[in-house]
Amino acid sequence: MSASTAYLRNVLESKNILDKTILMNQSFPCSPFYSVLLKQKAEKLFYENENHKGFAHLVDAHCVAIRHAAVNAHRDRAKKKLSKSNATTQRGIEDSKTISQLHQCFQFTKADFPTWLYSLPPEWTVVHISEMWQGHESLKMQGFGPPPLVYSLPKLIIARFHGGKNGSFLTKFIDQPAGGLSNGSLLAELNTILENNRIVNRDFRGNRAQYWKLKQEHHDQLKVLVDSLENWWLDFCKCLLLGELCDAADVLLLNRVTSSVIDLMKKMKRNVTDDEETWLKLLISCHSYLSRQQFVRGLLKILNTVVRNPLITELVGYFKTVQPELEKLKNAKRNPVILVLDKVIQQLPWESITMLSTTPVSRIPSLHFLNSLTLKHTLHRPVEKAPRSAISPRTNLKLPSIGVEVNPNLAYYVLNPGQDLPGVQLRLQPILEKIWGKHCGLSGSIPVEQQIKQSLMERDIFLYCGHGSGSKYLPNDHLIKLDCRATPILMGCSSGQLTASGRIVDPTGAPICYLLAGSPGMIGMLWEVTDVDCDRFTVRLLDLLLGARKRDELEKQNQTPPNQKTNKTDLPSPPEQLEPEVLRAVAQARPITKNFLTGAAAVVYGLPIRTLDFNSCNS
Fold first, then answer.
1. Mind listing the GO molecular function terms for this protein (predicted)?
2. Is 481 in contact with 73 (CB distance < 8 Å)?
3. Residue 597's Cα: distance from chain center in Å?
4. SS3 assignment, position 411
């Protein structure tokens, strides 16, 4: 037997063993290594140019343990709901059908490409990022030896999907970067910054000069880390994370430049495939965020050529002539981006990279959650004929394709329930009482669990300002049993953090529990933040979404000029314009914080959400 024949046989045998192992675990995967097997299979399929099949395996590799919890939660909620409604009535039949659909979203079946993505709103861009640990790091991630985040970064597989029936689908492998930070890992550097930040918040409150000096150091270190994430690790591939353009004039400019590039390539006897055209359009859309070196590297990779090729010279020359026009796209309005992040890299502040700093960005643990939430909140539309709006059975509100709409008048707030944040209560209580009144929330008192449950099931917004995520007052295992209607805004330390009890399990936390309970979205903090800076963010967010404080009234009362803080509470003055889209409002509120650490901590989970006009709802 020749060496090549023996090698081929070994390859086929290993492939058969992998397929059989996946098949054995498929119906009820209890092994934590199931996701590792799926990723290995996906990598093989990608190398065989079976991109759709490879992506299907990556989708199923995310949140295996959490999907078990979701199946159980939906089953228990179905029993409870069906026991209250008559299964023979029209409402009972509809409830049964909806519950069955939601239950199927998390079921373990053979990996198939999620064709329901084509029925998502065409404005949305879904970016699915999977981590692939290699060699020794892979073993360490499975529990053998020290954790890999101390030593290296994983290889990434980024899949970008643009919604709608004509949506594009791109995939890209990003290898482990060489060189970079002194300790070798963005993840290790982030952990060091956050640990030092905790020490400063705990031990240096009495020494204000040293406190602010160390805070500034952490501020600068995190900015370097975010820049390294964007330009060192992602390089030109960061264009995959960029949202689609909103305004027709910007789209027209992008299409015109793309057409000119394709015409130029055809003149030089170079045909362009559909994937190459999609990549070129992305690169052009991202042109103002790329250095010249990054842009050229992108062209070389996309066109699979070398820098000495006359085609590259012609293209670079052309882009010099249109550079002033393309600079306009740097400030262009973008449509929402939904990030699906794997269990280790979700710790990083992806939303704070320069390219995404003004883009509406949301996170979601896996595509199974996205499927479930869009079904529940009626955002799925027929592929062939997608209506511009749908009706929500929960709120009877019209839902535009851009996202879920919530009524800001249907709100409940819990402020300083632990009675140990008097400054927070002093700063926020007058504002919250002005917006919603004294009877729509609690200030400085411990809430009863039933009060929180009722507000989550009957209101559209739930605002919590205190320590952590508020799980002290409503435990997470009680939360996931609810049928949540509200969008929680949890302004507490690490309220949006996902943590894992070990290396081989999925990270979980308040965001997972709220999404399991059916909330359309959640706003929280990735790590520990200071109360004053967090309050600045909270007030700016409420100003943008609701017009919490009228600029003219505040200036008259405090005699404070525009864009200056008030001396009394150290809060920012109101913005010039309202921003009803939650994702955009969060992006605009981040820079108002004094420390980059606080702004970078703010993240949104779930679907794009929009608040209705506060005054029109009142009337």
1. cysteine-type endopeptidase activity
2. yes
3. 18
4. strand
User: Of 297-311, 317-331, 368-382, which range is least confident?
Assistant: 368-382
DSSP string, 181-234: STTS-HHHHHHHHHHHHHHHHHH-TT-HHHHHHHHHHHHHHHHHHHHHIIIIII
28: left (phi over 0), alpha (psi -120 to 50) or beta: beta
- The answer to whether the CB of 598 falls within 8 A of the CB of 550 is no
For residue 383, what pLDDT band results from cuts at 50, 70 and 90?
very low
**Taking Cα atoms as reference points, which of 506, 493, 522 lies closest to residue 603?**
522
**Tokens 């006359």, residue located:** 310
Helices (H), 559-619: 582-589, 596-601, 614-618
Through-space distance between the first and last CA atoms of the chain, rounded to whole angstroms: 85
Confidence (pLDDT) at 348: 95
Lookup result for tokens 């759709």: 52
Task: Name 564's Cβ contacts closer than 8 Å, sequence gap at least 6.
Answer: 573
Query: What are the residue ranges of helices labelled H in 459-507?
Result: 476-479
Query: Look-up: residue for tokens 């199974």?
Result: 368
- Pairing label, strands 521-525, 602-606: antiparallel
- Name all contacts of 376-384 with Cβ < 8 Å and 24+ positions apart: 376/98, 376/102, 376/518, 377/404, 377/520, 377/607, 379/120, 379/121, 379/403, 379/404, 379/607, 380/116, 380/119, 380/120, 381/119, 381/121, 382/119, 383/118, 383/119, 383/165, 384/165
Q: Which of 545, 573, 530, 571 is nearest to 436 (CA)?
A: 545
> Mean pLDDT across the chain, nearest whole number?
84
